[in-house]
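Example S7 (structure tokens).
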């Protein structure tokens, strides 16, 4: 149930951001890296249930962001299109992001010595 804990952290962050906003907050956007092992539907449900108590009248939107990888051998950096992976690979990576190294190679030099630059974090934005 770590979606509940994430939802709570998102709400706290949204409240904090809303305070520093000059205008009245209207929309909370949650950007989830695709390497985060979370169930978006469950997270969405928690936000739907709790946001109206914390910030009445504010809408929310969850968007996902493809991972950005960097090759440690040749420094090539690219966005990984998860839809190009096999369903098995996608599932493995969803549950264990480290499994990425077993399925993905650098498109330039073929190395598996990859670093995840982006894709594991959750960012919160509040719009007025
Ligand atoms: Zn490379």
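Recovered sequence:
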């Amino acid at each position: 149930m770590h979606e509940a804990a994430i939802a709570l952290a998102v709400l706290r962050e949204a409240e904090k951001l809303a305070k520093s906003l000059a205008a009245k907050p209207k929309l909370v956007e949650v950007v989830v890296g695709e390497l985060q092992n979370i169930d978006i539907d469950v997270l969405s449900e928690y936000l739907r249930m709790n946001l109206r108590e914390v910030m009445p009248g504010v809408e929310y939107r969850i968007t996902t962001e493809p991972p950005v990888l960097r090759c440690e051998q040749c420094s090539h950096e690219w966005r990984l299109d998860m839809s190009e992976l096999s369903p098995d690979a996608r599932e493995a990576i969803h549950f264990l992001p480290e499994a990425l190294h077993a399925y993905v190679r650098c498109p330039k030099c073929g190395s598996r010595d990859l670093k995840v630059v982006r894709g594991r974090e959750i960012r919160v934005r509040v719009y007025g």
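Notes on this example. Helices lie at 2-19, 40-54, 87-95, 100-103.
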